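User: Hey, my collaborator sent me this sequence without any context and asked if I could get a structure. I don't really work with proteins. Can you help?
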Amino acid sequence: MTESRARARKNPVRRVLGAVLALMTVVVLTACGARIDTTMNVSENGSGSRVIVATISGEDLGIVSNGSPAIDASIQKNLPGELMYSGISSTADGGATVTLTLEFASSADYEKKARALLSRGGNDEADLDFAVTDSLLLNGIRIEESFTSYDLLKWLFDGLIADGVVAESDAGNMYEMGSSVLNYGGESISQSGSFDHTAVVDNGFAGISMATDLADPDRITRTITYSVTTTKYASNKALYDEFFAESTPPGADLSAVDNGVWKMTFSGDAQAVTKFTDTATRGTSSELSVKTALAPNDPATLITTVIDVASCESICASGTAIQDTLTGGAGYTPESIEVDTSAGDPVVFENAPAITSIDALFEFGMFGGVTSTVNFVVPNEAVALVGDGFTTLFEPANGVGTLTLDKGENDTVYTAVVKGDGAETFAAAYAQWAPESRVSAVEQDGTTLFGREMSYFIDTGLTSILHGHAVTDETITTVALPWGQSVSSSSGELTTKSGITGTSVIATGASAQTAFQAGGPTFAGLLTIGFLFVVLLGLAFLLARSRRNVFTTLKGAGVRFKATMDAPDLGSLPGSRVQSASSGNAAGSVLGLGVGAPYVGSQRSMVEWPQHPVSPKPSASLFVLVPADQHKTTHGTSLFTLPFDKVADQIRGNLFAHYDAVGDSRPRKRTN
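Assistant: No problem. I've predicted the 3D structure and written it out in structure-token form, which is a compact way to encode the shape of the chain:
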């Protein structure tokens, strides 16, 4: 069994146009320029040669500058490696013959070389379908081309003009198409310019598809499904039985699903699957390459690149190609990819292991400092899959923070900490780690010495760190406010939690934006309030220390006051001397004082008491009055010493201006 096939994208319209143009060239340019004759020799194994002979008449050669030597020099100068040049030989009429040969080992080799020559002439869109098959199911040749030998030699004619061998004005008369002959299987088939011939005994499969599971790179599983029409199956059942008997790899599982439908399954590493695929398709060009590496922009993501090539040219009906459904396995995206195995283009799967949860805490301190603590919880299975990938992924860049790990029984917790002396400094440092983040704490109108109004906005920017890693549980963002601050207004769904340490604002979602306003005391205000509290506490302490003396004095005064009130004659109290009416005061006494006619003075005490001499130690006086220009300290039973003060601004608006001398022998501070 031998086979050879080269297939490119078919375009029937272009192929027809190519044939028409070739025919027009023959008609228009007859007897003008070199005549191009082509002989295509193909063996049953697909090897062969394409011999192109360009014959120049003596008449045409006569107008060529420097004749045959110039043509020979130009050809050797520009000759492509895909062709063999046999030199120039003379003809009987004084002309010359140029022979160029394209040799090929298979249809694929032919396609490769032909396309290289076409590209030299600027043609990259030509159609080419070349197949030679001698197998159990297919036997014959098919060749369909949308170009001619001139297109393969265009480099030669362009070179003659560029080298000055032929004038540019003669470019349109440089060639004419001669004969084209295909020699295959002992037959010679004449063609018109381009080759277009099919002669195949076709018992090939109408459809072949594959499904390849890459979940375990060491044990890849591939299932191939073959199908033929029921009519063809009924006519050639023994032929297909023979095919599967010869084409089933060792250890493979083959089953007949229906009349004309079979499934074959085998497993192994990539190299084994490649070998088994060649056996199952009677081919030699299968390839399965699976390479896994860390993604360049995400060290915690695996990239699996697959090259999948297969051919069914020796067992497939005309135009049939193999489609393979590749499945990357759990965690890979996309889940599956449809691959045209004739193209050989690489396909890529990504595996970004999921993260269990994220807990982000932003702490705003009383003195302006900000600290973020972000905990990433990752399953240990995912950690093992990518090695140090998560460490590299979560570590703060440029030394702006720290990263610590805590490996548990099932999960590993990665803790990233970033700090800043102020909100702006912190935001700049944090943005180096999470580029899409935004953190601000702005003071608002209404701030005083004792209270501050703030506007907060937090966008964690964690999506720029996570890349494609999903979070299976919740992502929680907590903002801890300075002590004493509370939320006054917010946007979005936020949860507020208050405690001894202060108020926290909680939001959920990896991309949640947290915005709110909060107010509370300032440090200066708290310091002022604290100072006043200490002062009041000191006064209370002093009062507590002297409470016994005050209580005793008040108690004694109360007893004497009661005795006075119980006395039948107010004027008979000891120590009272009633001044005569000539002093301008009414007679009598109250609490041991001479009773006169009190009057109100405009710049003195609200009540002016009449003056009278007072003994140093009155025996029963509750009040002792002295002249306003004197100070008197009593040591007896007096509770207060009340001076008459002549200084108006010291007593204005007061009922009494007095000195406290309770329990002491010296005057104390002034009280009103």
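In plain terms: Residues 523-545 form the longest helix (23 residues). You can pass these tokens on to your collaborator as they are.
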